[in-house]
Amino acid sequence: MTTMSHSSLTILLLCLCYVSFSEALNGGFTVEIIHRDSPKSPLYRPTQTQFQRFSNAVRSSIHRANRFNQSFLSSNTVGSTLAADLGNYIMSYSVGTPEFKLFGIVDTGSDIIWLQCLPCKICYNQTTPIFNPSKSKTYKTLPCSSTSCKSVTYNTCSSPQGKSCEYSISYEDGTYSEGDLSLETLSLGSTNGSSVHFPATVIGCGRNNSFVSEELSSGIVGLGSGPVSLISQLSSSIDAKFSYCFAAKDDKPSKLSFGDAAVVSGSGTVSTPIGFHDQETHYYLTLEAMSVGNNRIEFRNSSSGSTGEGNIMIDSGTTLSLVPGYVYSKLESAVAAEVKLKRAKDPLKQLSLCYEGKFDEVHAPVITAHFRGDADVKLSVENSFIDAGDGIVCFAFLASETLSIFGNISQKNLLVGYDLHKKTVSFKPTDCSKQ
Ligand SMILES: *[C@@H]1O[C@H](CO)[C@@H](O)[C@H](O)[C@H]1NC(C)=O
Ligand SMILES: *[C@@H]1O[C@H](CO)[C@@H](O)[C@H](O)[C@H]1NC(C)=O
Ligand SMILES: *[C@@H]1O[C@H](CO)[C@@H](O)[C@H](O)[C@H]1NC(C)=O
Ligand SMILES: *[C@@H]1O[C@H](CO)[C@@H](O)[C@H](O)[C@H]1NC(C)=O
Ligand SMILES: *[C@@H]1O[C@H](CO)[C@@H](O)[C@H](O)[C@H]1NC(C)=O
Ligand SMILES: CC(=O)N[C@H]1CO[C@H](CO)[C@@H](O)[C@@H]1O
């Protein structure tokens, strides 16, 4: 009797804890991601005020736009000029055999998974212990001659003969990581309790690292489209599909799904073609117009003569949304005409439409983003305003002359699914804290 239940428990535990990955992937899988400002986050800074969070969000959006603007202009250097100001989400994952648990910053704008490794020449203090590859049975460095090494532009191999592959990535804010491009088993904890394993995943084992803004994490988990990003490496097992859903409140966990679990369908779902993605990491959609109530503001600029294909980047790591100046000014006046609260000065002098009042007092009209293919995405107050602290709320859009971005505020409470085979992004209104 005792033996029986004991052995079935063992089997059950084996099933729960070690699902081989082809098996586990039939139905896809979902992992929880934690907002960095959630009290559950290992990177939580309880001393930050709402104003400090707001000012970080605004500053990093502008910084990020500049970074992409530059990489956009010289797109052949994207891989090596990634900048920080990374995503706001943290993913728990494990590397190695036995599994070693880490917290990485999730970033759709990065295309590598890197983590600090022992022994390091220079490491910052992360909250969890640092991974020691010599204690893992599945760790292997890659030679310069390997396909993976050659596929990344930021390897530092000078003579491809024999030497092991070293990488060096630096970010505009001074963050950098240098180390060994390696193969290791990566494990993700599914929300259903299973662990999903990906043997021989290419990771950057960082021996010399500095992380300016997120110094408590173990590194970055890149969801971009470059050859060694998490998404590209999982691609065949996840059928090139992933989705995310950002909860409106930072203290609620959000979800990141892969494979069939990332199919967005059902009532309210709209899909739009991916205009293009640049060589490395970023996805661009086509935004035809935006409406404030019934007031439609066209994006198409006849004087430029272009079709507007791929005119806006969708990005989970930029807080605000950025639109061209001529769109922004019309958008702002349409919103200003409807919101009845008392105007306030933007404490940062970066956003031009701010009000005195609380979030739930802003009775703004629904703003609709009209993406190509009749994909209308309705933006609620939560999707278009930001809490600036001290009783001030601001319209969360910025004017930007060269690059438009559909940022993370605009994507709250939307299930956002990428299907890289069909080359579409789908949106479905969803209470992300409940799904
Ligand atoms: C968890 O999900 C995976 C993938 O869909 C599935 O293979 C596995 O059986 C599930 N495990 C449990 C305990 O439900
Ligand atoms: C992008 O770069 C151009 C030229 O360097 C600059 O004039 C413009 O202000 C930049 N745009 C943004 C959004 O930073
Ligand atoms: C890292 O932590 C150690 C021990 O807590 C401390 O002595 C050291 O100054 C810290 N280093 C940095 C760069 O914060
Ligand atoms: C660490 O990397 C930085 C940035 O590339 C470099 O300047 C520095 O010399 C490196 N330090 C060591 C000890 O390798
Ligand atoms: C087209 O764009 C230019 C600058 O990019 C702007 O000055 C002009 O107002 C725009 N035209 C329309 C019709 O919005
Ligand atoms: C929905 C979402 O993720 N919003 C976040 C975007 O980034 C800022 C800056 O870190 C956060 O404060 C938001 O919560």
From TrEMBL:
Belongs to the peptidase A1 family. Residues 1-24 form the signal peptide. GO terms for molecular function: aspartic-type endopeptidase activity. CDD domains: pepsin_A_like_plant. GO terms for biological process: proteolysis. PANTHER family: ASPARTIC PROTEINASE CDR1-RELATED, OS07G0603500 PROTEIN-RELATED. InterPro entries: Aspartic_peptidase_AS (IPR001969), Pepsin-like_plant (IPR034161), PEPTIDASE_A1 (IPR033121), Peptidase_aspartic_dom_sf (IPR021109), Plant_Aspart_Prot_A1 (IPR051708), TAXi_C (IPR032799), TAXi_N (IPR032861). It comes from the Eukaryota. Keywords: Aspartyl protease, Glycoprotein, Hydrolase, Protease, Secreted, Signal. Gene3D superfamilies: Acid Proteases (2.40.70.10). It is found in: Secreted. Its main location: secreted. This is Peptidase A1 domain-containing protein. Residues 89-428 form the Peptidase A1 domain. GO terms for cellular component: extracellular region.
